[in-house]
């Protein structure tokens, strides 16, 4: 077993910012409700690829590509992670614009617990006793939400599994965050571009004037909103324990849940409130434990 690591503060802040951006995403994708969900995904892929690879080539030429793919297993690992994140995006955007924001938040409530399990079982990470208590309380909340949701939450489970496996692959792939995203995007770029061109030439697209300039600008800017939190997530996931990433991910679904209920008027009954309360108690236990351990480390350093 590896020792319990000291948390990287910069990694923690970057992770928190990434999850906050993801938490606000339903508001952005709702603005694009008139655009078919899969075309939004293809635009995300195309414009994020242009942004990321353009920036990398401007800074490093093609050196970044050669260095990244020269490492063992990286090329096929990133092909797999790119496929997983594309599936996750497609399901998420469709669910948001089909009125299932609360269920997508449930998926991202389940996902952190899956990350904790993966971190402990596959990466041999260790949790303190207080962290185990925190995870157990949060797990009770997720189980309560799952079994009292009213129907089988297939959207939530598919989102949790796809993003959990994506994060695990980015954790074990020995590649920096931005080059890794560039390679993932490169695998997806030509298929996404081909599908967009097919839609435009067969009367099913509207990017060139059909949806209006404002909608076109939102689709293009969606590439930046896609790239930046993914870069931050990939940066953080290599610098702090995967189990910690798992618990921090509750930031995004909490914001999504609040948006679904308060902005879009989706149902939030007593059963969902109970599950939500369990999750936040677990998070409070985890946060207090981390604060106390950081103070204990600071005392010897000051002495």
TrEMBL record:
Its main location: membrane. Signal peptide: none annotated. The keyword Transmembrane applies. It holds the Pfam family EamA. It is a multi-pass membrane protein. InterPro entries: EamA_dom, EmrE-like, RarD. The chain crosses the membrane at residues 12-29, 41-62, 74-94, 106-123, 130-146, 152-169, 181-199, 211-235, 247-268, 274-292. Residues 11-146 form the EamA domain. It is found in: Cell membrane. Keywords: Cell membrane, Membrane, Transmembrane, Transmembrane helix, Transport. Belongs to the EamA transporter family. This is EamA family transporter RarD. It comes from Luteimonas galliterrae.
């Amino acid at each position: 077993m590896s020792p319990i690591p000291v948390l990287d503060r910069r990694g923690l802040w970057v992770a928190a910012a990434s999850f906050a951006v993801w938490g606000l995403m339903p508001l952005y994708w709702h603005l694009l409700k008139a655009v078919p969900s899969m075309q939004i995904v293809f635009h995300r892929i195309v414009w994020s690829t242009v942004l990321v690879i353009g920036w990398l080539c401007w800074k490093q030429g093609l050196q970044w590509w050669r260095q990244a793919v020269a490492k063992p297993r990286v090329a096929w690992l990133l092909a797999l992670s790119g496929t997983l994140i594309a599936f996750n995006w497609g399901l998420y955007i469709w669910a948001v614009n089909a009125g299932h924001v609360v269920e997508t938040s449930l998926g991202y409530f389940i996902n952190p617990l899956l990350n904790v399990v993966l971190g402990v079982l596959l990466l041999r990470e260790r949790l303190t006793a207080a962290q185990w208590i925190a995870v157990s309380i949060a797990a009770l909340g997720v189980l309560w939400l799952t079994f009292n949701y009213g129907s089988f939450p297939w959207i939530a489970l598919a989102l949790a599994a796809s993003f959990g496996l994506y994060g695990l692959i980015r954790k074990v792939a020995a590649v920096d965050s931005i080059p890794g995203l560039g390679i993932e995007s490169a695998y997806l770029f030509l298929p996404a571009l081909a599908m967009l061109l097919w839609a435009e030439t067969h009367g099913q697209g509207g990017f060139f004037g059909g949806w209006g300039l404002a909608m076109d600008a939102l689709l293009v800017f969606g590439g930046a909103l896609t790239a930046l939190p993914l870069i931050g997530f990939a940066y953080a996931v290599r610098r702090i324990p995967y189990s910690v990433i798992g618990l921090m991910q509750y930031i995004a679904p909490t914001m999504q849940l609040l948006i679904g209920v308060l902005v879009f008027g989706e149902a939030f009954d007593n059963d969902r409130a109970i599950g939500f309360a369990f999750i936040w108690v677990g998070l409070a236990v985890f946060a207090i434990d981390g604060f106390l351990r950081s103070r204990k480390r600071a005392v010897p350093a000051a002495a």
